[in-house]
């Protein structure tokens, strides 16, 4: 069940990231950093989705760990964009809790998988 929640949350998050990046470009504030946010923010969901096809428990854990790293990177870019006024506090406040929820679910899933390893 957690995986379905993660897939849904991470896809919604990726959609929000894509929309935010589009808005930033339209405001003529886009730069090379924008690609970093777009790549890390959409990579979270891609790795979670790819996890459905993991070949082993180790592969499953690895995919979730990559998604978790991407989630932390996205946090960084969102905070940097907020601090440099590339996004508003409202935009940041809308996205940060989503990223945080996904991160917590990933950590719980990784911990559970590691504790059930044979």
Shape descriptor? elongated
Structural class, from helix and strand content? Answer: mainly alpha
How large, in whole angstroms, is the Cα Rg?
A: 15 Å
Give the rounded overall mean pLDDT: 90
Report how far apart the termini are.
22 Å
Summarize the structure in short:
The protein has 118 residues and is an all-alpha fold. 83% of the residues lie in helices and 0% in strands. The radius of gyration is 15 Å and the shape is elongated.
Task: Write structural notes for this entry.
The chain is built from 4 helices and no strands. The protein is elongated, with a radius of gyration of 15 Å. Helix 1 (2-26) packs antiparallel against helix 4 (89-115). The protein is mostly helical.
Features:
118 residues; mainly alpha; 4 helices; 83% helix
Would you spell out the secondary-structure blueprint of this structure?
Elements: H1 2-26, H2 32-50, H3 57-83, H4 89-115
């Amino acid at each position: 069940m957690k995986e379905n929640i993660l897939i849904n949350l991470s896809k919604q998050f990726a959609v929000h990231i894509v929309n935010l990046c589009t808005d930033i470009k339209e405001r003529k504030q886009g730069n090379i950093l924008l690609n970093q946010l777009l790549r890390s923010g959409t990579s979270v969901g891609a790795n979670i989705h790819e996890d459905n096809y993991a070949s082993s428990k180790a592969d499953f854990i690895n995919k979730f760990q990559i998604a978790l790293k991407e989630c932390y990177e996205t946090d960084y870019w969102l905070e940097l964009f907020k601090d440099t006024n590339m996004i508003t506090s409202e935009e940041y406040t809308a996205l940060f809790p989503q990223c945080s929820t996904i991160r917590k679910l990933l950590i719980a899933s990784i911990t559970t998988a590691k504790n059930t390893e044979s």
